[in-house]
Structure formats: structure tokens, C-alpha cells
């Protein structure tokens, strides 16, 4: 079994801007100016969708390489519905997270509709981000 530890170091400034270092890359998370941020980067929720689309696409490329499938590319769309009241501390009966996340994958390949559906299903079943959204991984948050 190959266990890989993924680590991100992040710093929050005096507003909402969070700068993270990931594998030597700088990534910025921010809130829109209308929400008190500077709009210097996507929000955490938008990055969640970027991570999901990126994982599905990456796994798709891995599968295509493993099976020697001619996949020219993919267009992956992710959207979801969120009641923001919970994250703002307002009372709500809705969950704090998304009620539903919808992913559509347009595969650019010479495949039948059934082959594309099977390919997309395999991508989703092998995507760790999708798995973590569907299953309860333990999250341990602590003060240092």
C-alpha cells in the first residue's frame, strides 16, 4: 500500500486573503470585494469545485493512459446549491455545505454514449476528491 501525505501551509492576512504554499506553488484564496475581501482569488467553495474537476480530469487522463484510450480532452463543469446562512452564523435547517453538487463531463473521444458513461463512472469511482465528498473522512482541527 502506498500512503502519500498531502500538506498545505496557509496564512490569513488582516482581511480574507489566505496565501497557501502547495508543492512550491503559491495559491490565493479570497472573498469578493462585496463580501469584505479584495477579490484576489477564488473562494474556498470555488476551490472545492476546482479540486473536484481537477481530480476527475486527472483520473480520467490516468485511465486513458492505462487503457491506451484516445481521449483528446474533456470539459468538466461543476456546480452546486448552497444556503449561505449557516456559514454566516444565521439559523437554518439546511446543512452548512452544498445541498447537491452536480458534475457534467463532456469527453472529447471517439466513444459511444455508453462507453463515455462507463468512462465517466470509472473516473468518479477512482477520484479521491469525489470519494471524500461522498464519505465521511475524519477532520481534526486543533489550535496550536
TrEMBL record:
One Pfam family in the UniProt entry: OsmC
Annotated InterPro entries: KH_dom-like_a/b (IPR015946), OsmC/Ohr_fam (IPR003718), OsmC/Ohr_hydroprdx_reductase (IPR052924), OsmC/Ohrsf (IPR036102)
This protein's UniProt keywords: Membrane, Transmembrane, Transmembrane helix
Residues annotated as transmembrane: 47-64
UniProt xrefs under Gene3D superfamilies: 3.30.300.20
PANTHER family: HYDROPEROXIDE REDUCTASE
The protein's name: OsmC family peroxiredoxin
Organism per entry: Tichowtungia aerotolerans
Lineage: Bacteria, Pseudomonadati, Kiritimatiellota, Tichowtungiia, Tichowtungiales
Amino acid at each position: 500500500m502506498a500512503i502519500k501525505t498531502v500538506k498545505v501551509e496557509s496564512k490569513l492576512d488582516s482581511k480574507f486573503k489566505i496565501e497557501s504554499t502547495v508543492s512550491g506553488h503559491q495559491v490565493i484564496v479570497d472573498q469578493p470585494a462585496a463580501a469584505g475581501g479584495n477579490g484576489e482569488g477564488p473562494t474556498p467553495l470555488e476551490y472545492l469545485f476546482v479540486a473536484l474537476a481537477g481530480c476527475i480530469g486527472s483520473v480520467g487522463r490516468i485511465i486513458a493512459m492505462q487503457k491506451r484510450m484516445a481521449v483528446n480532452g474533456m470539459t468538466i463543469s461543476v456546480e452546486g446549491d448552497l444556503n449561505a446562512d449557516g456559514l454566516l452564523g444565521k439559523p437554518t435547517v439546511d446543512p452548512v455545505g452544498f445541498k447537491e453538487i452536480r458534475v457534467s463531463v463532456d469527453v472529447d473521444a471517439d466513444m459511444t454514449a455508453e462507453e463515455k458513461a462507463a468512462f465517466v463512472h470509472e473516473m468518479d469511482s477512482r477520484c479521491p476528491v469525489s470519494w471524500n465528498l461522498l464519505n465521511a473522512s475524519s477532520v481534526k482541527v486543533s489550535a496550536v
